[in-house]
């Protein structure tokens, strides 16, 4: 019999995420996967899991879980208080949770998304090669609810358990290096200058589909309609209101608003941890 | 006949190229050529090949600049009209917008079924929802606008028209297309139990077959 986690408190939005669901975009299937991909990898590394093993991604308010047998976990990503049966436990490094105990992942003290990785990974049934919850199209498991039971995989041989790990702090200012194109020519020459010189702020309407921004509108040369075309992760799409949206992992696979530039994938982990109101600067690079 | 000079290749970030073509027909031919080259092992590694209305996106490409230069010199054969298999979709022509579409087409309501089912369509691209295919093949005089007010719920299996496209909704979603009929059992449109979950993959030819009892 395998170990299980029972969800005691599901928090504002907690989903199962792994490395994502690639290779099906031509069928309208988003990539999905952990928004802070660096946090996913580090948490799994610390437990001896495969780099893309499934974890829980929380949003702002954490979650609480009970385990039916002793497990080793890592809570990383956005910093937050961690307790085991009410006693303070370490954040960012492996923690032993005894059978029957409740692991409480508290509200973030900075950033947006904490990750709860468990030795052996979360072993819900994969869909198209991934266990990730895709909030755009509804593939994969639904967001977790109180009382849900999540099966766990078999842990690897116990790895060396470090007492510290290189977690980056969530950004107080988000810098997003961007390459213009593929539709920069749909905008006035001033639009790209505005985008790379003005300060934007992370909008509270951001989600797993896109990081929405508030700031100066980008002006288009024509108001014509762009025939639907394929969209990449990190695409900066500009809807009719002119405010750029950076596409994150649950983005639609095709879209009809022009993409003025594409943000480097390596910068998107920080974007996943940028709280509403965080200043955003787009740079050429 | 080839089309090498009509291709425009744009970079989309560090790992993708967006290939732009003059029209839907040549986009389909270029997509078919990409699939041929991938099957033959002559295409560099690529994670996703995503057709759009007039583009094909190649994502997860290790050296996009190099691929962009090579693609500009490809000779792409035009695609035979009867190339690829045909999927038949049974339809009951009973949609709530049937009268509206008949008026736009200038035909009697009962003639919509005959018109719509007389054409062979092709899946140009997918999007909107898993398994939702945008089907081209209606002549320009039968293109209709979207509804002024989208419906908050279009049922699974709804057969719909908007602009140059026909589609069948694989599941219930909000939608603004004109609904002309119903696929009685829409489950095969998206079936995760199958190796290929989508019935309507890009490039597939599609015929709508009017069911008995259609007015």
Reconstruct the topology from this structure.
The complex is a heterodimer of chains A (285) and B (215).
Chain A: E1 4-9, E2 15-17, H1 37-47, E3 55-57, E4 63-67, E5 71-77, E6 82-84, E7 87-89, E8 95-97, E9 102-105, E10 114-118, E11 149-151, E12 174-180, H2 189-197, E13 200-202, E14 210-214, E15 229-230, E16 235-237, E17 245-247, E18 254-255, E19 259-263, H3 268-272, E20 279-284
Parallel strand pairs in A: 12-20
Antiparallel strand pairs in A: 1-4, 1-11, 2-3, 3-10, 4-9, 5-8, 5-10, 6-7, 6-9, 12-19, 13-14, 13-20, 14-17, 15-18, 16-17, 16-19
Chain B: E1 8-11, E2 16-20, H1 24-40, E3 48-51, E4 55-59, H2 64-71, E5 86-91, H3 98-105, H4 109-116, E6 120-126, E7 133-136, E8 151-154, E9 158-162, E10 165-168, E11 173-175, E12 178-182, E13 205-210
Helix pairs in contact in B: 3-4
Characterization of the model:
The mean pLDDT of chain A is 96. By secondary structure, chain A is mainly beta. Chain A has 3 helices and 20 strands. Chain B has 215 residues and is of the alpha+beta class. Helices cover 19% and strands 29% of the residues of chain B. In chain B, helix 3 (98-105) crosses helix 4 (109-116). Classes of the chains: A mainly beta (285), B alpha+beta (215). At the A-B interface, strand 15, strand 18 and strand 19 of A face strand 3 and strand 4 of B.
Which series of helices and strands of chain A comes N to C?
Answer: EEHEEEEEEEEEEHEEEEEEEHE
Would you identify the regions of chain B where 5 or more consecutive residues have pLDDT less than 50? Answer: none
CATH architecture of the largest domain in chain B: Beta Barrel
Query: What would you give as the CATH superfamily of the largest domain in chain B?
Result: Cyclophilin-like
User: Which sheet architecture does the biggest sheet of chain B show?
Assistant: 4 strands, antiparallel
* Chain pair sharing the greatest interface: A-B, 33 and 35 residues
């Amino acid at each position: 019999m395998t170990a299980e986690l029972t969800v005691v408190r599901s928090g504002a939005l907690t989903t199962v995420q792994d490395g994502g669901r690639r290779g099906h975009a031509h069928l309208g299937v988003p990539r999905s996967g952990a928004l802070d991909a660096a946090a996913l990898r580090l948490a799994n590394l610390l437990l001896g899991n495969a780099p893309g093993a499934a974890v829980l991604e929380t949003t702002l308010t954490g979650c609480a879980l009970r385990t039916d047998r002793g497990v080793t976990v890592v809570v990383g990503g956005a910093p937050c208080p961690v307790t085991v049966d009410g006693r303070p436990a370490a954040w960012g490094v492996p923690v032993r949770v005894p059978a029957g105990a409740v692991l409480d992942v508290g509200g973030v003290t900075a950033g947006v998304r904490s990750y709860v990785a468990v030795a052996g990974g979360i072993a819900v049934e994969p869909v198209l090669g991934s266990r990730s919850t895709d909030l755009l199209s509804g593939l994969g498991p639904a967001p977790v609810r109180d009382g849900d039971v999540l099966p766990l995989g078999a842990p690897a041989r116990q790895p060396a358990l470090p007492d510290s790990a290189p977690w980056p702090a969530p950004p107080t200012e988000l810098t997003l290096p961007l390459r213009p194109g593929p539709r920069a020519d749909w905008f006035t020459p001033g639009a790209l200058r505005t985008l790379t010189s003005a300060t934007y702020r992370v909008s509270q309407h951001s989600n797993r589909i896109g990081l929405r921004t508030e700031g100066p509108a980008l002006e288009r040369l024509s108001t014509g309609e762009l025939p639907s075309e394929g969209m990449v992760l990190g695409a900066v799409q500009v809807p009719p209101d002119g405010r750029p949206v950076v596409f994150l992992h649950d983005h639609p696979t095709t879209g009809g608003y022009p993409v003025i530039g594409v943000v480097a994938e390596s910068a998107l982990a920080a974007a996943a941890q940028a709280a509403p109101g965080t200043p955003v600067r787009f740079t050429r690079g | 006949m080839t089309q090498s000079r009509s291709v425009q290749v744009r970079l989309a970030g560090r790992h993708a190229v967006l290939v732009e073509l003059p029209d839907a027909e040549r986009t389909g031919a270029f997509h078919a050529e990409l699939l041929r080259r991938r099957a033959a092992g002559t295409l560099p590694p690529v994670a996703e090949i995503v057709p759009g209305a007039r583009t094909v996106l190649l994502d997860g490409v290790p050296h996009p600049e190099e691929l962009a230069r090579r693609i500009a010199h490809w000779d792409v054969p035009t695609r035979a009209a009867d190339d690829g298999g045909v999927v038949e979709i049974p339809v009951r022509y009973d949609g709530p917008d049937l009268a509206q579409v008949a008026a736009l087409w200038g035909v009697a309501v009962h003639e919509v079924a005959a018109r719509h089912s007389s054409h062979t369509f092709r899946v140009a691209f997918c999007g909107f929802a898993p398994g939702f295919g945008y089907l081209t093949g209606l002549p320009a005089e039968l293109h209709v606008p979207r509804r002024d007010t989208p419906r908050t719920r279009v049922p699974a299996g709804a057969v719909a028209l908007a602009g140059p496209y026909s589609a069948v909704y694989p599941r219930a979603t909000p939608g603004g297309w004109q609904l002309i009929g119903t696929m009685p059992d829409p489950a095969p449109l998206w079936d995760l139990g199958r190796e290929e979950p989508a019935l309507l993959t890009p490039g597939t030819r599609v015929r709508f077959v009017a069911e008995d009892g259609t007015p």
